[in-house]
Design a protein that fits this description.
Blueprint (H helix, E strand, L loop, with lengths): L5 H11 L2 E5 L6 H7 L3 E4 L5 H14 L4 E4 L7 H10 L8 E5 L3 H10 L4 E5 L5 H8 L4 H7 L3 H5 L7 H18 L5 H13 L3 E2 L2 H8 L3 H13 L3 E6 L13 E4 L2 H7 L5 H5 L4 H19 L5 E6 L5 E7 L4 E6 L7 H14 L3 E6 L5 E2 L3 E5 H14 L9
Parallel strand pairs: 1-4, 1-5, 2-3, 3-4, 7-9, 11-12, 12-14
Antiparallel strand pairs: 6-8, 7-8, 9-10, 10-11, 13-14
Helix pairs in contact: 7-13, 9-10, 9-13, 11-12, 15-17
Length: about 400
């Protein structure tokens, strides 16, 4: 059993808030984590669970047990009762843990009923930082290929990619419609496949709309919904006062690489490396691992990408309170001088204090502002920084 790093985040929030909401995609491990915390567990998708909770309500409110309510969006009537119970004893923390699949319905009820009373933890599939200890650093490529869902093949290779295809089918036919996604399953399937084809590229809503026979505002609405359910991530373009014209269209990334590869019918690593878009897949995978690990380490930065109209770019720009990192991502074990020069040119334009090239190199290269490293070493570097310093500083040594 993999020990999830999110457990510490949840326990810390429960010490500070009367109710904590643990949100994330279906099957990412929320229920397993919640049951490890103990308390009374109620799954609102199971018939009779609400009646059982209602019957035990007064006793539970008098007791000291943690009350865990899974798929809380299925029982919106519970939120006013939670607010009443919390307001009757505002100094008592760690009373309720709500689990949800990041549906808009849940977030609406949370914002209306529990504002100011709730801590929020966003949980995702397994990360390299969580897997490297029990599985070893060699799990990196398997994680990239199969994604991080616990049942999706990272722990049992035979389940990829059938599990992902079943998962996406249930989303299209059951979950997304129940949560209010406005497209019919047939259109949803097609839209998901189209988004897979444009992974790590600028989101051209007009082109997608024309292919689907809808307007571009509807496409944007679809993407908003899918982003709320942790399927995709849109990274905004960096904007600043420079003389060059900038690309201003957000880039779209699939958050779990296993779902992306299932949609693109990838079967194994050899097949993946033969695809013309393999570099885009690697870029999205690295960005997701970096951003999720930052969150797990308690570090906060605004993510952007940077690209000028004449092709000067940085795949990921992290804006901290006092500095800026420019990160370039390459699927190579032998970074060239031209790659580093391109990174330096982009970093100079945006005034980046640290310039990082993440690739598959075995040995690091360091200078005053430059770091060339691989993904495991970079994630380890971030973890060390979060433990050693109260604020983020440059990667210089």
């Amino acid at each position: 059993m993999i020990d999830r790093f999110y457990r510490g985040l949840v326990e810390g929030k429960l010490e500070r808030y009367p109710v904590v909401s643990l949100l994330g995609p279906r099957q990412c491990g929320k229920t397993t984590l919640a049951k490890k915390l103990g308390g009374r567990y109620f799954d609102m998708e199971i018939e009779g669970a609400f009646l059982r909770l209602d019957a035990d309500w007064d006793r539970l409110m008098r007791g000291k047990e943690l009350v865990v309510i899974d798929e809380a969006q299925c029982a919106p009537e519970i939120f006013p009762r939670l607010r009443g119970a919390i307001d009757s004893d505002r100094k008592r923390n760690g009373r309720f843990l709500l689990l949800g699949s990041v549906s808009p319905a849940l977030m609406q009820n949370v914002s209306e009923s529990l504002a100011g009373r709730m801590g929020l933890v966003s949980m995702g599939p397994l990360t390299f930082a969580e897997l490297a200890g029990p599985l070893g650093a060699d799990c990196l490529e398997n994680l990239w290929l199969r994604g991080g869902f616990p049942d999706g093949g990272i722990l049992d290779a035979s389940r990829f990619s059938e599990w992902q295809k079943d998962y996406l089918e249930l989303l299209a036919t059951r979950d997304l419609p129940e949560w209010g996604f406005p497209a019919k399953p047939q259109r949803t399937r097609r839209f998901l496949s189209m988004l897979a084809a444009v992974n790590a590229q600028p989101l051209n809503a007009s082109n997608l709309a024309a292919a689907l026979g809808i307007d571009h505002k509807t496409v944007i609405g679809y993407c908003d919904f899918l982003e709320e359910t942790f399927l995709i991530r849109r990274v905004r373009p960096w904007s600043g006062n420079i003389t060059k014209r900038l690309v201003k269209t957000p880039r779209l990334y699939w958050r779990d690489s296993g779902l992306l590869h299932a949609l693109m019918n990838v079967q194994n690593m050899e097949h993946l490396y033969s695809q013309p878009w393999v570099g885009h897949s690697w870029e999205g995978f690295v960005i997701e691992q970096v951003l999720v690990t930052l969150g797990l380490c308690g570090m906060s930065a605004e993510p952007y990408f940077f690209r000028t109209s004449d092709g000067i770019e940085s795949d990921l720009v992290l804006d901290w309170a006092r500095e800026r990192w420019a990160i370039e991502i390459k699927l190579t074990s032998d970074p060239t001088r031209s790659m580093i020069q391109g990174l330096q040119k982009a970093a100079d334009l945006i005034g980046a204090s640290s310039r990082i090239l993440i690739c598959k190199t075995v040995e690091e290269i360091r200078s005053k502002k430059l770091l060339v490293t691989n993904l495991p070493m970079f994630l380890e570097e971030m973890a060390k920084m979060s433990k050693a310093q109260p604020s983020v500083t440059s990667l210089q040594r």
